[in-house]
Amino acid sequence: MGEYLDMVRRDRANRKDLIGVMLRALPPFSVVLTGADAGVICPFHSFDVPSWTVRVSGKSQLWECDSCGAGGDTFDFVQSYFGFTFQEAMEWLNGA
Ligand SMILES: [Zn+2]
């Protein structure tokens, strides 16, 4: 039952706009909007490799870095970026 609830919560979080979430979490200059998608300076690898590497799809709500391989959904981003647990990420996504 707990697992089912987590799945429902995760699904709901993933419906949140990924680009909006990144704009809220990251420094403003690191996100460049390109129509429905965005290019983002990857926060998961050092800057000595080319920076504009995270591709964020507004449609799929998925992101992926060509350089370091980081990627996932909205939840993966919030948990990885802040080092949050599932519960903490949920609270952050809900605007707590
Ligand atoms: Zn990266």
Estimated helix fraction? 25-40%
Q: Assign the structural class, choosing from mainly alpha, mainly beta, alpha/beta, alpha+beta, or little secondary structure.
A: alpha+beta
- Terminal Cα separation, in Å? 25 Å
Total DSSP helices? 4
CATH homologous superfamily assignment: Zinc finger, CHC2-typedomain
Order of helices and strands: HHEEEEEHH
Shape label: globular
Describe the largest sheet: 5 strands, antiparallel
Distinct compounds present: zinc ion
- Largest sheet: spatial strand order: 1-2-3-4-5
Low-confidence stretches: none
How many structural units, i.e. domains? Answer: 1
CATH topology-level name: DNA Primase, Chain A
Structural features, described:
Helix content is 40%, strand content 22%. By secondary structure, it is α+β, with helices and mostly antiparallel strands. It has a single domain, classed as DNA Primase, Chain A. It has a five-stranded antiparallel sheet, with helices on one face. Strand 3 (52-57) and strand 4 form a beta hairpin. The longest helix is centred in the N-terminal third of the chain and has 13 residues, at 2-14. The protein starts with a helix and ends with a helix. The chain binds zinc ion. Zinc ion binds next to loops.
List keywords for this structure.
4 helices, globular, DNA Primase, Chain A, alpha+beta, 96 residues, 5-stranded antiparallel β-sheet, binds zinc ion
Summarize the structure.
With 96 residues, this protein is an alpha+beta fold.
